[in-house]
Amino acid sequence: MTRVQKRYHRSEKRKIPEFTSIEEEAAFWDTHDTTDFEDQFTPIKVRFAKRLSEGLTIRLDPETLAELRARARERGLGPTTLVRMWILERLHETAPQADTSTRQ
């Protein structure tokens, strides 16, 4: 029995324990059912890209492309998906805010 499992069994409440590593968390979820903890999950809104019909070609030097691929792989994404996410995040961050102070 792992340390997390021992901690879990000692507690009377069915609470998701704190994990010290991804491996420890993976071991916990390998032996537990998420439906036993549904009340502890927070729903989130997910947005999916629709009708991606146009493309954009960019040229990157080999080192930059290797770095992009490595960062995408760390997140379990393809490099194109990661770049699209970054572009959308940046556009959202820099979007002009409507000036409501002059409205009556």
Give an overview of the whole structure.
By secondary structure, the protein is mainly α. It contains four helices and no strands. It folds into two domains: 3-40, no CATH class; 45-95. The protein is 43% helix and 0% strand. It starts with a helix and ends in an 11-residue tail after the last helix. The relative contact order is 0.07.
Descriptive terms for the model:
2 domains; 104 residues; mainly alpha; 4 helices
Helices and strands in order:
Elements: H1 3-10, H2 22-30, H3 62-74, H4 79-93
What is the gist of this entry?
The chain has helices spanning about 5-10, 20-30, 60-75, 80-95. By secondary structure, the protein is mainly alpha-helical.
Approximate strand percentage: under 5%
Number of helices: 4
Major beta-sheet overview? none
Q: How far is the first residue's CA from the last residue's CA?
A: 66 Å
**Quick one: how many beta strands?**
0
| Helix content percent band | 40-55%
Radius of gyration: 22 Å
